[in-house]
Amino acid sequence: MVCSIQSLMRRLAAGVAVLALVLLLVACGGGNTGKSSNSNNATSANPVKQVVPTTLATGTATAGQTSLTKTYTGTGFTMKYPADWKLTTSSTEAAFTDPSGSYNLTIGSTPNPNGTKIADQLAENGIAGAKTNLKNVQTVNLAQTTDIGGQPWSQRSITGSSVLNGQSSDIEAVVLANNHPAHTTATKGYVIVYVAAKDMFDQARTKYFQPMLQSFKYVS
Predict the structure, then answer these.
(1) pLDDT digits over 58-101, tens only?
(2) 198, exposed or middle or buried, with CB in 10 Å at 0-12, 13-18, 19+?
(3) Strands 167-180 and 151-164, how do they pair?
(4) Under 8 Å between Cβ of 218 and 149
(5) Is the CB of residue 159 less than 8 Å from the CB of residue 171?
(6) Helices 2-22 & 119-131, crossing angle to 10 degrees?
(7) In terms of DSSP bridges, do strands 86-89 and 93-97 run parallel, antiparallel, or are they unpaired?
């Protein structure tokens, strides 16, 4: 089961981020360049269940959270992560994975001049990529935006299952997207994907993902 989950973490996180970033430069679907129809706020007739906080406050990690002792400097940002986590980088992505391979957070960026693809589109593209690797997909209702590094990010989440080596694994994933700096020729599209086995997701989010996201800062 562990090997199955590890393989799925790598495939899902990498696939989501890569697809979302590629679609920055490729028209998709009906070529919609306006705001996503899924960007309604939480005041609709069916209230949104906010399973991920709408604001990730900065500060010292609270009880139950892990200590972040290493700092990664990426393209225009920094983020702290646990000392025992594995860091894998490429020219466009950085992937952080816990020692057991059960938890993964991946950050990717690519040029998106003037923010041609808005954050909602990047997040939706990421979710579309995740769905291609999963069965029995269900949307997790959560606030459509969250604050990271002092800026609003679009966010989407799903659960689903995948069969690898004859074993079925249930996972939960959150996709976050942002353009920075906004509306300039130097704008980059940033996508963050964090993934864990469904039965461990809440624990992973509290102990690892939230503290890591709280430490995220743009530096340019």
Answers:
(1) 333 344 677 899 999 999 999 999 999 999 998 888 999 999 88
(2) middle
(3) antiparallel
(4) yes
(5) yes
(6) 140
(7) antiparallel
